[in-house]
Specification:
Mean pLDDT: 94
Bound molecules: ligand MGD, iron/sulfur cluster, molybdenum atom
CATH class of one domain: Alpha Beta
Strand order of the largest sheet: 5-4-17-16-15-6-7
Shape: globular
CATH topology of one domain: Dimethylsulfoxide Reductase, domain 2
Largest sheet: 7 strands, mixed
Length: 685
Amino acid sequence: MKAGVYRTICGFCHGSCGMIVRVGDAGIESIAGDPEHPASRGYLCPKAMAAKELATSTDRLTTPLRRKAKGLQPVSWDEALDFAAERLTAIRRQHGPLSLARNAGAPVNYDARDGFLHFMQVYGSPNVTGAGNTCHLPRFTAWLAVMGAKPEPDFDRARLLVFWGNNPVATERYGSYCAYEGFDRIIARAKARGGRVVVIDPVRSETAAQADEWVALKPGTDVALGLAMIHVIINEKLYDEPFVSGYTAGFEALQQHVQPYTPGWAEPITGIAREKIVELARQLATTRPAAVCDGNGLDMYCNVVDTVRTVAILQALTGNIDVPGGAALLPFAKQSALHTIPPQQRLGYDRYSIFKEVPFPIVKEALLGNDPARPRAMVVHHSNPVLVQANQARTRRALGKLEFLMVDDIFLSATAEIADLVLPATSPLERYGYRAHSAFDRGFVALSRPLADPPGEARDVFWMESELARRMGLAATYPFTDSRSWVDYMLQPCGVTVEQLEREGIVAVTPPPQYEKYKNGGFPTPSGKVEFCSQQFAQSGQQPMPVYSEGAGIALQSATGMATAFPLLCTNRRTANYVHTKFRNLKSQAKAYPEPLLWLSPTDAAERQVCEGDRVELSSPQGTVEIRVKFKADLRPGLAMMDFGWGNPTDGLASANMLTNDGVWNPISGSHPQRLFACEVAKLG
Ligand SMILES: Nc1nc2c(c(=O)[nH]1)N[C@H]1C(S)=C(S)[C@@H](COP(=O)(O)OP(=O)(O)OC[C@H]3O[C@@H](n4cnc5c(=O)[nH]c(N)nc54)[C@H](O)[C@@H]3O)O[C@H]1N2
Ligand SMILES: Nc1nc2c(c(=O)[nH]1)N[C@H]1C(S)=C(S)[C@@H](COP(=O)(O)OP(=O)(O)OC[C@H]3O[C@@H](n4cnc5c(=O)[nH]c(N)nc54)[C@H](O)[C@@H]3O)O[C@H]1N2
Ligand code: SF4
Ligand SMILES: [Mo]
């Protein structure tokens, strides 16, 4: 790499913050925030500093690994790709093109989103699955049902900000598209201009600690709160009448539907006093403009789609859609499509047609049940399904049933460890990549570029897939051969090239947003209006309006009759120090937060003679782990909280999904109750 100072973006989480990297003769010398990045404005979180370490970590995969009699063995790229081509060709010949599934992880940057996706196209398989059932897609599905699109909250102009099931001070994340400059700054600015910040969360998170108000509901009960707030706003006639009568459909049905859902009904379910529910509803309806920001704290429950439909309905009822300071439908970069196979033939389409991919549990159960339609091979790209899906032991067993499992990763993850073939990938600092953002001024694209040499024989995923397709005779028209040509291909529709991005770093690709577009064009739903009562859901045999149901994965104890053996409920969270299961093996990271913790209320701990710092056995009906206890005085007694993300071979520590339940899931998104399990704690020794 030529010495110099380069503008790039961080590839470690969805934030994709702008970075300025100084490269010297010996490699990367320094990393700093890019003050000219329109979204992150100079901000970088401490995780970005680990980039240097990532490039030089001795744990990196440096050659392909093929499973042989003695386990995974280093092999050449030629042997690895010939082996993959031979296995996949044979499986395709015997079982047809639907036999391959692709599992991808959180689409943190677009290189993570896209690897092996076009390969699915040329192989002929619609069976795309992954972490989508756990992450934002369930919420996205709910917004699509209500208004055909997912709007972006206008944090810097809202007078009321409601963070509902998210913790952006730790995760830097709200929207599908935007990067931000640190939510502590955004919250401070909101308060300084006289705005109000409310957080709805069962635990006092970092964001709740900075808010004007923390609404501490019982986990998994948000749909009851949402329905009761709709009840109040409709019955007190606090809704935006012109918007509702002009641009929505199904209001009368909704009005009737929510009559039983009174604040008094919701009080024992949610644990929030009825007066507080009324006050919250009034505040939301009368403070204009307001933005309600739903988060990942809602995704991993069986009722997620209905919960978030109530959030979307509240945003619309109060007239806060597509207005400055509310939530806006922002323009976005046009990009090439890599996979256009119609979904009709994909696994489980008869029951899961609304969701944008095959929900992971459908693949898992097909494998475990030897379903004749099950995939026989899987490629796992930038993902760690063994650790991130519910009930790890069963997930591992399901993946063990594949005839061929191929994983591309930068480390030997818990999933790579059980693969037939492991392909060593480049890290974001060793390849080209990009990220598109919507924004309240101009939507833009930003480039990330190779600034360090890949270790050993680590290669771009886009090279891997095009090379594999070539060896299988499927590559007649493969549109790219490496990460650079992939970026060029993806950005053709918006007329931007890598060369231009290398020169300019960041290129605006959309006009400034326009508001109240629905006044001319309507909403992109079947009726052209906001649908309080979803036509699409009704046609697919789903509830047209959100409902509350007991069995949504919250009443785990009473539902399974295990209240005596597992009297506590445990939620789990991501820490600010790490992204999912990544990078606990990097020294700077491990030093800052060395092990997962189990957070207990002092009352629950005392009842079990557990002291702060003790190591305990934490058990659920699914499994047992050992973990250290820390007290959290503001936890509701009966509720514990565990840190999520450990459990890779490189750390060997407690994994949350050893304990989560995969026996139930949302009928649309396949979301398991991964944020909550019944448990008991016992002192070790
Ligand atoms: N109990 C519980 N379960 C959860 C969650 C929770 O809060 N609680 N959160 C859920 C959510 S929201 C999500 S998004 C999922 C996350 O699910 P995943 O996205 O599958 O999880 P990650 O840990 O991010 O896995 C990414 C893998 O990619 C590898 N990797 C990192 N960089 C690169 C690269 O540049 N190239 C390649 N090829 N590989 C790379 C990492 O080493 C890692 O093994 O987990 C979900 N599961
Ligand atoms: N540092 C860091 N940043 C990340 C990630 C990471 O792993 N680490 N992951 C990235 C990814 S893929 C995602 S999806 C986002 C997620 O980021 P966010 O959307 O901010 O979600 P989380 O931080 O997972 O959880 C938010 C809050 O939901 C709460 N919660 C749990 N159960 C419930 C419930 O039943 N109701 C309500 N109302 N709240 C509940 C939790 O207590 C937690 O405080 O973060 C992204 N950014
Ligand atoms: S918030 Fe995410 S994208 Fe931004 S610096 Fe931190 S890890 Fe990187
Ligand atoms: Mo996620």
